[in-house]
Design goal:
The protein is globular and about 85 Å long. Helix 1 packs parallel to helix 4, helix 3 runs parallel beside helix 4 and helix 5 packs across helix 9. It is built from 12 helices and 14 strands. Helices cover about 35% and strands about 25% of the residues. Pathway: Purine metabolism; IMP biosynthesis via de novo pathway; 5-amino-1-(5-phospho-D-ribosyl)imidazole from N(2)-formyl-N(1)-(5-phospho-D-ribosyl)glycinamide: step 2/2. It is found in: Cytoplasm. It comes from Nakamurella leprariae. One of its GO terms (molecular function) is ATP binding.
C-alpha cells in the first residue's frame, strides 16, 4: 500500500521558512554593519565566521572581556508600536556597558535575531539600530544570525540577543578590589527606563491602567509609546574617557535589580556605599509608573534604574576634574555619596547592626 501523499512535494517555504527573504534581509543589513567597521575587521557579515585582528601592539598583557544579553520584554512595546529602529540600540547598550564596567574597551559585537517570519525591511530596521548602537559604543558589528521560527513564534514576534567582546590590560581591570573607604560615588543620568523592568511597565500601564501607547502624555510631551521606546543611553565611550583622565576604581551598570543591587556588586566586604536620594530627581516616567500602579518606592528601586544608568566609584581627590570630563561629554552626572567603612556607616546611619553594602537615604525631590 502506497502511504505517500499524492501531489506536489513539501517545501521549506511551505513549512514557513523563506530562504529568499533571509538572503534579502542579509543584503539589506550589510550596509548598516559596514558603518561600524573598525580597521581590525577582516571578515564581517556573510562569511561562516567573522575575523577580527586583536590589536596586540596596543597592549602589554591583554585580557578579553565578554558579555551576552538581550532586550527582554521591551521588544513587545516595539512590536506593538511597529517601531523597530531603536530596539537595537538597547541591545548594544545592555552588552557593551557590561563589558566596559570592568574597564574594557568594547571591540566587536555579534547579534542573534529570532523571529516568527523574516520580513526583510523589519530585520533591516532592527539591524540599523544595532549598527547605530555600535557606532555610539565605538565597536564593530561583525556578524550574527537571523533565525526564522514558524510555529514557535507568531509572524510578527521577534526576540534579540547579542554577545560583545572587549579588551583590557590585566593590571587595569576595574572592580571591588580597587574600591577604598573615602571614594566618591558618581551617578550618570539614564535616558529613562532603559531596557529593564518592562514586565512591570506593561503590567502597570497597559494591563492595570489600560493606557494606550499612542496616547499623548503631557509630562513627556510625546506619546506613552515614544517615551517607553526611548533607547538606552550608551556609556561605553564616556566610561573609557573618564578612566583615561581620572582615577576610576569601579563601574556598575545599573540594570535589572536597580541601583543598590548592582552597585553592591563592586563594593567589597567591610565597606558601605552611602548614597543620598536628594542628589538627583528621577525622570517623570518613574513617577508616572509608580502613580498608576501604586508601586512602593522599594519595589520601584528594585525594578528600575530610577534615573541613574551607570555609576563610577572614583578617588575623592580633585573630583571637579572627574565631573568636568563627563560634563564636556554632555553627560549629566552627580555625586551620589561616599564609600565608608561599615563601622563608620553604622554609626553615621545609627544602624543597629552591620549595614548592607549599599544604603540609600533621604527622599527624591519631586517624586
Amino acid at each position: 500500500m502506497n502511504r505517500h501523499p499524492i501531489g506536489p512535494g513539501a517545501t521549506y517555504a511551505g513549512s514557513g521558512v523563506s530562504i529568499a527573504a533571509g538572503e534579502a534581509a542579509v543584503d539589506l543589513m550589510k550596509p548598516h554593519a559596514r558603518r561600524t567597521h573598525r580597521t581590525e575587521v577582516l571578515e564581517g557579515i556573510g562569511g561562516f565566521a567573522s575575523l577580527f585582528r586583536l590589536p596586540l601592539n596596543r597592549f602589554r598583557d591583554p585580557l578579553l572581556a565578554s558579555s551576552s544579553d538581550g532586550v527582554g520584554t521591551k521588544t513587545a512595546i516595539a512590536q506593538a508600536m511597529d517601531v523597530h529602529d531603536t530596539i537595537g540600540i538597547d541591545l548594544v547598550a545592555m552588552v557593551v556597558d557590561d563589558v566596559v564596567a570592568c574597564g574594557a574597551e568594547p571591540l566587536f559585537l555579534q547579534d542573534y535575531i529570532a523571529c516568527g517570519k523574516v520580513e526583510p525591511q523589519r530585520i533591516s530596521s532592527i539591524v540599523a539600530g544595532i549598527a547605530e548602537g555600535c557606532v555610539r559604543a565605538g565597536c564593530a558589528l561583525v556578524g550574527g544570525e537571523t533565525a526564522e521560527h514558524p510555529g514557535l513564534m507568531s509572524p510578527e514576534d521577534y526576540d534579540l540577543a547579542a554577545t560583545g567582546v572587549g579588551v583590557v590590560e590585566a593590571d587595569a581591570v576595574l572592580g571591588p578590589d580597587r574600591v577604598r573607604a573615602g571614594d566618591l560615588v558618581l551617578g550618570m543620568a539614564s535616558s529613562g527606563v532603559h531596557a529593564n523592568g518592562f514586565s512591570m511597565v506593561r503590567h502597570v500601564l497597559l494591563d492595570i491602567a489600560r493606557l494606550r501607547l499612542d496616547g499623548h502624555v503631557e509630562e513627556f510631551s510625546r506619546t506613552l509609546g515614544e517615551e517607553l521606546l526611548e533607547p538606552c543611553r550608551i556609556y561605553a565611550l564616556d566610561c573609557l574617557a573618564l578612566a583615561q583622565e581620572y582615577d576610576v576604581h569601579a563601574y556598575a551598570h545599573i540594570t535589572g535589580g536597580g541601583l543598590a543591587n548592582n552597585l553592591a556588586r563592586v563594593i567589597p566586604d567591610g565597606l558601605t556605599a552611602v548614597l543620598d536620594r536628594r542628589t538627583w530627581s528621577p525622570p517623570p516616567v518613574f513617577g508616572y509608573i509608580a502613580g498608576h500602579g501604586r508601586v512602593s518606592r522599594d519595589e520601584m528601586e528594585q525594578a528600575f534604574n530610577m534615573g541613574i544608568g551607570m555609576v563610577a566609584v572614583v578617588a575623592s581627590d580633585d573630583i571637579d576634574r572627574a565631573l568636568a570630563v563627563l560634563t564636556a561629554r554632555h553627560l549629566p552626572t552627580v555625586v551620589l555619596g561616599t564609600v565608608e567603612t561599615a563601622e563608620t556607616a553604622a554609626v553615621h546611619l545609627d544602624h543597629g547592626g552591620r549595614p548592607p553594602r549599599v544604603v540609600l537615604s533621604g527622599d527624591h525631590p519631586r517624586f
